Structures are given as structure tokens and as C-alpha cells.
Amino acid sequence: MSTFFRNIKRALRLCQRQAKDAFSREHFARQRQHPSAAQRSVSVEQPFTASATLQAKRHNLALAARRISAYVVMPGEVFSFWRAVGNPNTSAFQASRGLRAGRVEIERGGGLCQISGILHHLALLAGLPVMERHSHSLDLYTEQTRFCPLGSDATVSYGYLDLRFRNTLSAPIWFTFDVGETTFRASLHCASHFAPHTIVFRRTEETPYRLTAEAYDETTGQVLCRSTYKRVKA
User: Fold this and answer.
1) pLDDT at residue 44 is higher than 90
2) Closest CA to 54 of 181, 141, 185, 232
3) CA dihedral over 66, 182, 148, 13, signed as positive or negative
4) Considering only CA atoms, which of 96, 102, 48, 46 is closest in space to residue 228?
5) CB distance 117 to 102 below 8 Å
6) Backbone angles phi, psi at 48, to 5 degrees
7) String of DSSP letters for 132-151
8) 3-state secondary structure of 110
9) Is residue 209's pLDDT more than 60?
């Protein structure tokens, strides 16, 4: 599909989603001043994987992090990744590696899946219900190159795939990030105390080239999400 027709299709999908959101009566997070102090926080830190486009990816993550950091999610509100980050197909974002339709491509805004994935992981740790999350179709990594637990990822595609979760805690939540040279750290802060959940990511090898991973909440004894991946053949 050409870029022109892909953009037209994305615009139509985006209009459909915006109309659906308008009629849903959901309240979405928006930019607000942060509460004065956090009473409880949870954090996740991931290493950066070396690549030719790492500098561009780090730029994209830092830009998305600044935008997300401006948002505060009040109790009952829904956080939407794309509502916070905006359209990545602009000159503000750089071209980096991304996964589209099962193929690795260089695209503007590439690498943003690392920040959506780490937000998904934080939401699980905080016990927040995830309303929309999509896993990648391929497992591109070995255990030596993997930067996050298999099953914690959350792929996003503007106009198509979003990451959304609801703040069911009793106080506002917000996020901070540290985009370092070798590591990426994200934290979820809450203005009241809460008990973090213990999340374990378990996997099952179905065939040499197909595996399933699930996020298991040891606190509640529930499987929160299950994802199936194809493994790249050696």
C-alpha cells in the first residue's frame, strides 16, 4: 500500500475512533499540574538495545516522554497513549526502526513501542485495568538482546492501535521518565498509597517458531493478558 493511501486509511480510522470516543462519554486524561507529592510509586527500568537507529529512537522516546509527563490521570479517567503523544508522522519525530505488519521497517516515530510497553507494564504493577493493548506479532529478540519481558509489550500504531487503561485508584496518577544513554526508566506516581501487584510473565513454547506469553498477577491469581508470537527463523 502506498504512503498516500495508507495516510488516507489512517485518517478515516482516526475519525471513526474520535467519533466513537465522543459518544462513549468516557473521561480522558488531560494536561494538568502535578499534585505536590507522590505517596506511592512503581518503576520499571529497561536497557537500550544497540542499533544503527538508537539515537533516533532515544530522541523519539524523550519527546513522547515529555508529552506524557504533562498528563495527570484523575480517578475514573482513561489514559490514551495517542491522545497524549499525538501524531508521530510529523517532523518532530525522527525515523527509527519499527515493526509494521510483521516486517521491520524504518519509519518516522519508530521505537515508540518501548514507551507504550513500559507504560503497559506499569499499569499492571499498579493494578489498573487495561482497556486496549495489542501485542507484537513477532518475537524478534533472543534472551541476550531482550529488553523487556515477553508479554509485557504493547505495540501502537497511530489511528489503528492504542494503549488505554483506567485509573481505578483513589487519587490522581502521573508519570515520569529518565531516558539515559544505556537505560530507559519510567515511573508511575500516585497521590495516595496503594499496594503494588506482583506480575510474572510466563511463556509456553508451542512449536519451535510459535510461543505464547501471559501476564500472571500473583496478587489476584488472574491471567491479565495472553499474547501469541511468531519467532523469527534462524
Assistant:
1) yes
2) 181
3) positive
4) 102
5) no
6) -90, 140
7) E----SEE---TTT--S-TT
8) coil
9) yes
User: Can you read off the three cell numbers belonging to residue 118?
Assistant: 513500559
Distance of alpha carbon 157 from the chain centroid: 11
Burial track 80-114 (b if 16+ CB lie within 10 A, e otherwise): bbbbbbeebbeeebbbbbbbeeeeeeebbbbbbbb
Average pLDDT over residues 21-33: 94
Grid cell, residue 154, equals 504493547
Dihedral of the alpha carbons of 207, 213, 219, 220, in degrees to the nearest 10: -80
On whether the pTM is more than 0.90, the answer is: yes
* pLDDT value of position 101: 62
Please identify which residue in the block is written with the cell numbers 519510567.
186
- pLDDT above 70 coverage of the chain, percent: 95
Within 8 A by CB and 6+ apart from 7, the residues are 89
Condensed to tens digits (0 to 9), the pLDDT of residues 151-191 reads 999 999 998 999 999 999 999 999 999 999 999 999 999 99
